[in-house]
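We emphasize that the prediction below concerns an isolated chain of 275 residues; any contacts that depend on oligomerization or on bound cofactors are therefore not represented. The input was used exactly as deposited, without trimming of termini.
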Amino acid sequence: MNVMRIAAKTWWDLKRFGLTPDKIWRRGNAGLPRIFCVSVPKSGTHLLERVLCLHPPLYRKFMSTLYNSHLEKYQGLRPLVRNLDPGQIVVSHLHYTDNRLETLAEEGVKILFMIRDPRDVVVSESFYIRRKKNHYLHPLFAREPDLRHALILGIQGDAAAGYPSFGERLGYFAGWMRDPVYVVRFEDLIGEEGGGGQETQVEVIRGLFDFLGINLSETEIQAIRGNLFSDVSPTFRKGKIGEWRKHFDEEIQALFKETAGEMMVRYGYEKNLDW
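Result of the prediction step, given as a token string:
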């Protein structure tokens, strides 16, 4: 990592946690929402965080991404969100339960759910785990001879290792796609640099902030849009749409349909299994 990139990443870390001059004096404004972000891992978590944190009054709570196993540390979900200040954001990969949705709604927290084409998710996940040596699944993926076999592992899972199939893992999050949750699609938010469209990106940014009760001017929307695509995310690889087409052969496609095809329909990425 070169000096310029280190400096850019350091500045972004300060900014997203609300520690830059344009943010620190705005912290705690009583009129701001408290925000709870949920995503399937590798679905564009940091893209959603970035679009929020590019707005000066909003900033991420100084805590790591929240997983199911972390809730004990905060004595549960309700105490955690009750301690959120106005304008603070929690980023999570929290599995859905009715109780969790009810808790967040009762506490008046705005809930955002970030999703991405599951086929692109499994490709991104396989690349990420294979290169991330400190990831708990790295030894499992490292034993595979190439990316193709890593994709097969990611799709079908490994029951003996306690690693569920990809379809099962998608099922853990599918319940978040209901009111009062606002669903954000990676493909709509990424914009031209990631293979999406500028007009759609603008509309999604506007709709997202409208949901949060924050009115943005066109100038503010364009400022966010112009700075959204970045490679300083700690989990960034390509951020492109449709990468799965380069890596799925007929066998992998058939396996994916078998294990996660129903979830493709439920997540709204296909109408049926005829793809």
